[in-house]
Design brief:
This protein has 14 helices and four strands. The strands form two sheets. It has a two-stranded antiparallel ribbon with strand order 1-4. A two-stranded antiparallel sheet has the order 2-3. The longest helix has 29 residues. 18% of the residues are buried.
Length: 388
């Protein structure tokens, strides 16, 4: 290939890359590599293939580029990223991409497959009645006394550090903690559903299926027999602010300030990491792990994109050859009532709201059946000893 030909092919490949036509850009840049002695065409072809999620081919192109010019740190970084993505198969959606469907979300909780509760051994009827009466009376009296002590001795919970319950004696500390819990539950949990509506817009009367009085369900339903979809997968996550305070932001609001600029300014590590003496990265991993148990709004939309401009000094501009980030918009809530629901902006939570390990076992019966071996409570492993 002549010098003029490979330069023309490289220029056209760069143009297609800037237009985000990645597959065609990779083909044109692969035409240019034969005559390019610098390795840059290989690297550009690798970048086009990386954007097209063809990571193994991208890694091969970056390796060839580095064999011609091993001093480029961006190429070396991208080679590592491409190899990691290829090994992890991040381009394979797990689970398959699906979007919320209104009819399914408004349907009843899935029918659980639970064992029948064990039958309690019968006691003499007179003794059983006496125990029930005595227990009920004692419980009401004890609950009233404890509630009064909580409100009396626990309400003075504010200090320079408002969570000061652990600075008191064990009993006063417990009362303060109990008061704070009641106060937060009473004043900070707001339903995202219209007044009077049950969670998931369920009918007033649903008969509890067998087993739900004693066992948890896969989709998180029936923890509250009177409101069976409370905390269940496929419902709206509760709020800790009043619905009247919710406003739907415009795209301009989302970009002011620019979230990428915040990330660069606050989280870019300098020559030496600023260490926190009482915390390590295990805490961040654990918090993220727990968040995945509680909430996710499902797959982002692929046809509604928010474009985030990259600052001029952003290293991603050179590394990925782009001046914007592209983030799929969160799915809208399809259960909003067509008759004119006035509740502000709402979203659906794809997983159970409870602290129930759903990030491991899934939030539906089919997923749990696929993951569990059915032997001694163990998960199913593949031939290599890893999770499916």
């Amino acid at each position: 290939m002549s010098d003029t030909d490979w330069r023309a092919a490289k220029a056209e490949g760069e143009r297609l890359l800037d237009e985000r036509n990645f597959v065609l850009a990779a083909k044109r840049l692969e035409d240019a590599v034969a005559g390019d002695p610098t390795g840059e065409s290989h690297a550009l072809a690798g970048l086009a293939l990386f954007h097209a999620e063809q990571y193994a081919d991208a890694a091969e192109q970056y390796a060839r580029a580095l064999s011609m010019n091993g001093d480029n740190p961006d190429w070396r970084h991208m080679l590592g990223r491409a190899r990691d993505n290829a090994a992890a198969e991040v381009y394979v959606p797990v689970p398959p991409v699906t979007y919320f469907q209104r009819d399914a979300l408004l349907g009843p909780p899935e029918t659980p497959r639970l064992p029948a509760p064990a039958r309690a051994r019968r006691r003499p009827s007179l003794l059983r009645l006496a125990r029930r009466v005595f227990g009920g009376v004692a419980g009401r009296i004890g609950g009233g006394i404890l509630g009064g002590l909580t409100r009396l001795l626990g309400r003075n919970y504010r200090d320079a550090v408002w969570t000061n319950w652990y600075r008191r004696s064990i009993y006063i500390g417990m009362l303060k903690l109990a008061y704070m819990r009641e106060k937060l539950n009473r004043e900070n949990l707001k339903s995202p559903y219209p007044p009077g509506a049950r969670i998931g817009f369920q009918p007033d009367v649903l008969t509890p299926p067998p087993g739900v009085t004693h066992y948890r369900t896969a989709d998180g339903s029936w923890n509250n027999l009177a409101d069976p979809k409370e905390g269940a997968a496929g419902t709206r996550f509760p709020r800790n602010v009043a619905n009247s305070a919710i406003e739907a932001p415009s795209d301009e609001d989302l970009l002011d300030p620019n979230p990428r600029l915040i990330s660069l300014e606050l989280f870019t590590r300098g020559e030496q990491m600023a260490e926190v003496p009482f915390l390590n990265l295990l805490a961040a991993c654990w918090i993220q792990f727990q968040n995945h148990d509680w909430i996710t709004h499902g797959e982002n939309l692929s046809d509604e994109i928010i474009e985030i401009p990259l600052p001029e000094h952003d290293p991603a501009r050179a590394r990925y050859r782009q001046d914007r980030m592209f983030v799929g918009r969160t799915q809208a809530d399809p259960t909003r009532q067509p008759s004119g629901e006035t509740t502000p902006l709402t979203f659906i939570n794809e997983v159970t709201h409870w602290w129930d390990g759903s990030q491991i076992y899934g939030s539906d019966q089919a997923t749990q059946d696929r993951l569990r071996s059915g032997v001694d409570g163990k998960l199913r492993l593949d031939d290599g000893g890893t999770l499916p």
